[in-house]
Amino acid sequence: xxxxxxxxxxxxxxxxxxxxxxxxxxxxxxxxxxxxxxxxxxxxxxxxxxxxxxxxxxxxxxxxxxxxxxxxxxxxxxxxxxxxxxxxxxxxxxxxxxxxxxxxxxxxxxxxxxxxxxxxxxxxxxxxxxxxxxxxxxxxxxxxxxxxxxxxxxxxxxxxxxxxxxxxxxxxxxxxxxxxxxxxxxxxxxxxxxxxxxxxxxxxxxxxxxxxxxxxxxxxxxxxxxxxxxxxxxxxxxxxxxxxxxxxxxxxxxxxxxxxxxxxxxxxxxxxxxxxxxxx
Length: 280
What we know:
Distance between the termini: 49 Å
Number of helices: 7
Order of helices and strands: HEHEEEEEEHEHEHHHE
Largest sheet: 3 strands, antiparallel
Shape: elongated
Structural class: alpha+beta
Low-confidence stretches: none
Oligomer: single chain
Radius of gyration: 29 Å
């Protein structure tokens, strides 16, 4: 039995694929924005950015001796006058739990709002997926812009004619006494190709997303821009990058001061590049 909802299911499936593609692309890019130096060997640098992207915060702590850890945490309720949690609990993937406080652990936040990038990434991924789906729908409508109405034999004749067109036949021949294609009603949908408009919107949305997430956009006319124009174009990106780096540096300074007797060298963080990684 033919599924009446096949078209709807196909649309949802395609949307899901487009969404996942953009979501995974953004996640990979944002997880590589910063580079950490002198981290203890037991702390994977990629875990720090993964937790900051997903939760907006991460807890750095000393487990025993000179061994350290970095993991997501939950507040146990007690807070200081500024709202920072004094007691924190870490629940590891294997179910093990450890409790810490503000004297033996340090919180690093993703930005000054203490928010994750996950919601931003999800929002832009959804918008871009909708644009890709709109492009697909527009292209499909341009492929079949004509509807024929007639009896069974007439429609079969038209189907054979279009099959021959698909086969690239150089010429089509119809006998003069053939009236099967007479009196066929034709509805021309006159679908207009709007792909260029969608692609322009998509390009602008991608640039907005990259700027919001702290990436510089290569400008095709950069050689013709004056310094003030370049600065204006990069103002959003500069603000986002400064805010994120500042919060990471602030947390690591507290970490270095708290555990200076156990760290061979201070831990520090910087941009992993010029903010154009993967965009050229």
